[in-house]
Amino acid sequence: MAPRGSGSKKWTAVDNYFASLLAPEDALLRAALEANNTAGLPAIDVSPLQGKFLQLLVQITHARRVLEIGTLGGYSTMWMARALPPDGRIVTLEYSPTHADVARANLLRAGLLDRVDLRIGRALDLLPTLAESGAAPFDLVFIDADKRSNPDYLDWALRLSRPGTVIAVDNVVRNGAIVNGKSRDPDVIGTRRMTEQIAAHPRLSATVLQTVGDKGYDGIALAVVLP
């Protein structure tokens, strides 16, 4: 996740133009970002256009069960939760209790907490419990946590999926660093390994969309689980 405001002035202006027309932030979304900032959370939330993209994924896939790995302050959770049907639910996993407290308050203020199952702890410890508890299979999985663990998150996303499940992974371009096969950055290494897993997996069909905007130069991987 890149910090907001890290893009060029032109990219940011274009982001703002499209967002103002297609993904305008209301008072509750703005309040969530303000609460995140006041609490000292890193400014690495998805942008409004990216939030709307996630919301559209929920709608396009008719998702009822959504898994989010990496809650932060719940901004992306809010975008997706708003698109759920009445019986829909998001399970979102957050390592930091402080971040989770902020997210819970944001979701409560927005009237969305009843649609969200917020679980606190290390994602790789929590994911096996989802398999055991019957929460899966999920219709949509959004991975946006520590990038060095992306290969493990992908593995669990597949275990918790069904044919037709869509898996989205944020921040896969990493300002172009992804092409450096000699990189020692664990986030680059983890993302490259995950991408290689996707390419080799017989049950995944995927692509990557490069993005520029208010958050700089990055991209999102999008995969669908095949029968």
In short:
With 227 residues, the protein is of the alpha/beta class. The chain has helices at 9-22, 27-38, 48-60, 75-81, 97-109, 123-133, 150-159, 186-200, and strands at residues 65-69, 89-94, 116-120, 140-143, 166-170, 204-213, 216-225.
Tell me about this structure:
This protein has 227 residues and is of the alpha/beta class. It has a single domain, classed as Rossmann fold, CATH 3.40.50.150. It is 42% helix and 20% strand. It is built from eight helices and seven strands; from the N terminus they run αααβαβαβαβαβαββ. It has helices at residues 9-22, 27-38, 48-60, 75-81, 97-109, 123-133, 150-159, 186-200; strands at 65-69, 89-94, 116-120, 140-143, 166-170, 204-213, 216-225. It has a seven-stranded mixed sheet, with helices on both faces. Strand 4 (140-143), helix 7 and strand 5 (166-170) form a beta-alpha-beta unit. Helix 2 (27-38) runs antiparallel to helix 5 and helix 3 (48-60) runs parallel beside helix 4. The protein is globular.
